[in-house]
Design a protein that fits this description.
The complex is a heterodimer.
Chain A (H helix, E strand, L loop, with lengths): L1 H30 L4 H9 L4 H10 L6 H13 L5 E2 L4 E2 H36 L4 H15 L2 H15 L18 H39 L2 H9 L3 H23 L1 H15 L4 H10 L3 H29 L1 H4 L4
Antiparallel strand pairs in A: 1-2
Chain B lengths: L1 H15 L5 H11 L1 H23 L31 H37 L1 H16 L2 H12 L3 H9 L4 H14 L3 H8 L4 H37 L10 H8 L8 H28 L7
Helix pairs in contact in B: 1-2, 2-12, 3-4, 3-12, 4-5, 4-7, 4-8, 4-10, 4-11, 6-7, 7-10, 8-10, 9-10, 10-11, 10-12, 11-12
Classes of the chains: A mainly alpha, B mainly alpha.
């Protein structure tokens, strides 16, 4: 019961955050100079005052701010984000087309960073001053200091252009349209690897350093000494007893990084021409396509919030102390 | 490189036994951290190059001076020329000015916002804390780069707008750290004593608590300069920066279509960003060791 109530509170809070994102963006668009009518008039090569007024009336821009906001919120609740006059498509279908690619990239990068990071962290915790520990520290410094789009371009030059191991751009190979399903999945995976690795490079070593520190702390605990005294093998101690208790901080950190991962995804998508929300965002921003921009901000905030909720869920699964409401 | 950083704190602790004054102790520990020392020297060179470079090498970074894609070292162009035949060295020096300035100003701005939020939340607690921390959480959920992109697109890509767009989205970490420090320090006896002596709330916050809360904030602020430089580079790479000035990210973005013809036009400015941010983070590590002696035993 307690669990259900906590979840409900969290969900309600997440929805409030999302609505706040919508309000903030709507306010921003309104205080910014220029509006949709200006953009359309600019596309037409100029327009008279009457035509401008007509456009404003058509888009509801002549109504008071609060009314416009209310109308917009009403639409958002029904997942209607208006019409993109740049792409000539409803924003919702435009985003529905691009969202899966971004979700795939963001979650596989996080998963890759977590899995590899934890493995490296566990191994280097067993030899705190070994070569691997130093390597991970160097990797962390690199991940923090190198601009992610540059890392991506360097990997592209090295592994796609000089050694043609990976495709240069996009998500699917058009020549495989008629190939069997499994072949197409493999193709997407092939396209995904470099972008996911690039994006993971920011966070991988961060997770691994925290995992190492957390492992070292846990390995010094009394119950580990008890386990040793019981005669358990080192493997059982590390992977069954210590790892489970040192994962908590790592997962928490990963959850906090979701907003940074989504931000990084925008840059990585641009480098690899990945057909996701990031490339769409850049296109619509350059075209001043307001409805699409607002829609993308909403959905990218949604990705972060869902990521945070999932993190909570994982934390509950690995740590029973949180489940009972202790935290 | 790494062994030096690992043994530095221990060596620092030895030396400290002889040192007396806390400030001197800090300096001694920082100087003993070899990685941080090397990083300080590298960063000084970068900063000096950005300040005096354009004067010593007075070439307009926008002017087409030679054949495009001249490799570094050829025909007297130390770093070669880009896709329009513009001098890369001039672009790098002038770009350094812009990248470092924006990084520094944006970081200062976000540190100021962060300290204000954190201090008010940690000092007044209750409703104030609730509201301010909710706003902080809100900014943590917002994908910061996308939000900055929107700000720049809406208000125009000038240096000021770009700086503000970076500053207003990256203060949350400082706010959290400041709040945590204020929550801890406000309960200490010397704060109670000052209050009993008649210090006003403003005095308590700015004169009594803040100076003691500064060490972790300074470390975070140093790191913020690095991340602001990265942030600016990202925006400029996407083409969302002032078109009238050169910056490191902008060089990479505009030369990206030509990586097959001349990879160096992208590699070199990227290395500049990397080396600069790396130096800043190593200095941050060094400051952390020097300012937070309790953590040193790690």
């Amino acid at each position: 019961m307690n669990f259900l109530r906590q979840t409900a509170v969290r969900l309600g809070y997440a929805i409030a955050l999302l609505l706040a994102v919508v309000v903030l963006n709507f306010v921003l668009i309104h205080i910014a100079p220029g509006d949709i009518a200006d953009t359309i008039a600019g596309d037409m090569g100029g327009a008279t005052e009457e035509v401008m007024a007509k456009i404003r009336a058509d888009y509801g821009l002549d109504k008071p701010f609060i009314v416009q906001l209310g109308l917009y919120m009403g639409n958002v609740v029904r997942f209607d984000f208006g019409y993109s006059f740049f792409f000539n498509t409803p924003v919702t279908s435009l985003i529905a087309e691009r969202l899966p690619a971004t979700l795939l990239l963001v979650f596989s990068a996080q998963l890759l960073a977590l899995v590899v990071g934890v493995v490296l962290g566990v191994i280097s915790a067993q030899r705190p001053n070994g070569m691997l520990s130093h390597f991970v520290t160097l990797l962390a410094l690199f991940g923090y200091s190198a601009p992610v789009f540059w890392t991506g371009i360097m990997l592209l030059i090295g592994l796609s252009l000089m050694l043609p191991l990976f495709p240069v751009a996009g998500m699917v190979d058009a020549r495989l349209m008629d190939a069997p399903m499994w072949r197409q999945y493999l193709d997407v995976l092939h396209h995904l690897l470099l972008p996911a690795l690039t994006l993971a490079s920011i966070f991988l070593a961060l997770y691994s350093r925290l995992c190492r520190a957390s492992m070292l702390e846990v390995l010094g605990a009394d119950y580990i000494r008890t386990a040793r005294a019981k005669g358990l093998t080192e493997r059982e101690i590390v992977y069954k007893h210590a790892l489970k208790n040192s994962l908590g901080p790592v997962v928490t950190l990963a959850g906090l990084q979701f907003s940074a991962v989504v931000s990084g995804a925008v840059l990585v998508e641009t480098v690899f021409s990945w057909p996701g929300l990031g490339t769409l965002a850049l296109q619509s921003i350059l075209a001043r396509d307001t409805p699409t921009i607002l829609g993308i901000l909403f959905f990218s905030a949604l990705v972060v919030i869902v990521g945070n909720l999932l993190t909570d869920l994982v934390l509950r699964l690995i740590d029973p102390r949180i489940r009972s409401g202790g935290g | 490189m790494k062994p030096a950083a690992d043994s530095a704190p221990r060596r620092g602790a030895e030396i400290v036994d002889k040192a007396q004054h806390p400030l001197r102790e800090m300096v001694v520990i920082f100087l003993a951290n070899r990685a941080a020392m090397v990083a300080s020297i590298v960063l000084s060179i970068v900063v000096l190059a950005a300040i005096f470079g354009p004067m010593l090498h007075p070439v307009d970074p926008f002017e087409m001076v030679w054949a495009p894609f001249t490799p570094p070292g050829q025909d007297g162009f130390v770093l070669g020329t880009d896709y329009l035949g513009r001098d890369m060295l001039a672009a790098l020096l002038n770009g350094g000015r812009v990248s470092l300035t924006i990084g520094l100003v944006a970081a200062l701005m976000s540190v100021f916002i962060g300290i204000s939020f954190g201090a008010l939340a940690g000092f007044y607690r209750g409703l104030v804390e609730e509201v301010l921390m909710r706003i902080t959480e809100f900014f943590q959920v917002l994908p910061t780069l996308l939000f900055s992109m929107v700000i720049v697109a809406l208000f125009g890509a000038s240096l000021e707008v770009v700086t503000i767009a970076i500053g207003v989205v990256s203060w949350t970490a400082v706010a959290r750290i400041t709040r945590a420090e204020f929550l801890r320090i406000r309960e200490l006896e010397y704060v109670t004593a000052s209050r009993a002596a008649g210090a006003s709330n403003v005095t308590l916050m700015t004169r009594v608590i803040l100076p003691n809360a500064l060490p972790p904030i300074i470390v975070q602020a140093a790191l913020m300069v690095g991340s602001a430089i990265l942030f600016e580079a990202g925006l400029a790479f996407l083409g969302l920066s002032d078109p009238n000035v050169v910056s490191w990210g902008q060089i990479i973005g505009s030369n990206r279509p030509y990586i097959l013809d001349a990879g160096f036009t992208v590699t070199i400015p990227g290395l500049a960003i990397f080396v600069t941010v790396l130096s800043i983070s190593l200095i941050g590590d060094g400051l952390n060791d020097a300012l937070n002696p309790k953590l040193r035993a790690r």
